[in-house]
Amino acid sequence: MKCVKTQDAVGHVLCHDITQIIKDVKKGTAFRKGHIVTEEDIPVLLSLGKDNLYIWEKTEGILHENEAAEYLRDICMNENMIQSEVKEGKIELIAEIDGLLKIDVDKLRAVNSLGEMMIATRHTNTTVKKGDKLVGTRIIPLLIEQEKMEKAKEVAGDRPILSLIPFKKKKVGIVTTGNEVFYGRIKDTFGPVVAEKVKEFGADVIGQTIVNDDIEKITKAVEEFIEQGADMVLCTGGMSVDPDDKTPGAIKNTGARIVSYGAPVLPGAMMLLAYYEKDGRELPIVGLPGCVMYAKRTVFDLVLPRLMADDMVTSDDLAGLGLGGLCLSCDICTFPNCGFGKGV
Questions:
Q1: Strand pairing of 162-166 and 99-103?
Q2: Which residues partner with 120 through β-bridges?
Q3: Which of 41, 202, 245, 307 has the highest CB neighbour count under 10 A?
Q4: What does the pLDDT look like over 85-120, one tens digit per residue?
Q5: Which residues contact 8 (CB under 8 A, 6 or more apart)?
Q6: CATH of range 171-320; options 3.30.300.20, 3.40.980.10, 3.20.20.10, 3.30.1330.40
Q7: pTM to 2 decimal places
């Protein structure tokens, strides 16, 4: 830091805030630290009584906050994102599309542990809309060692910490089971709920098949949708452990790979997730518990965005939903802007 005459400060970086006070009109910061002085600033600065300014001296190996902020941008930024302007050592990234936001949580923690810099993101596996803010970054001091920013790049590795995966246009088949529905004793109210949820992600429901509690017929209905080109099959009904609930066994009989029957989420503990291999692709088959029909938000709302983005869900992923997996059934639902399904 050195002191120079204000007229000689053009192109230099201020090392401190400069306050402007106009009686009964204004009291605030006219120029913030880190501001690069322009020719137009000189008269204003002189009017504020600043005949001299303290400016940053360029030193080899030392970065200004705005230069260092670009390191954090590069660590975070991926496809389908745009950046804000660099200001006071801060850069934000904005979603350019609707999609599924994923965060490398371990790398995020590692970079934030270095000190003098910060990256604050939304939760991982969050559904975002075009224009949503994804992350805010900031360099804490005005000046920082370049070596430290290079260390941050090394810790983050070759791949950005954030990724934004677009949702795929999927064809969905719905298999509804239950003697009470099949024989017309009650009206099906489950299928319409599920159809509405997948349509929110741009999916096409190619059909709904209603079958009775016959394990072979349920299996056949699932397989027929796959043959018709369904990218995903959702099964409603028959998902508890009662002897006449045949859906889990029917899904297993398709030969699909069972990821998990059960998830540590309430509502939604009885969900079954499986993947059926066809032509080199793994197509999700989901057995949905009855709560999806009447509860505002369930395990299905946590898993569906990932399925729509072709983001493979593992048994470990499901196990991790236990932390934050209790929906509080608030009178006014604010999901996804709440803790449900957020975990660490």
A1: antiparallel
A2: 136
A3: 307
A4: 988 889 999 999 999 999 999 999 999 999 999 999
A5: none
A6: 3.40.980.10
A7: 0.86
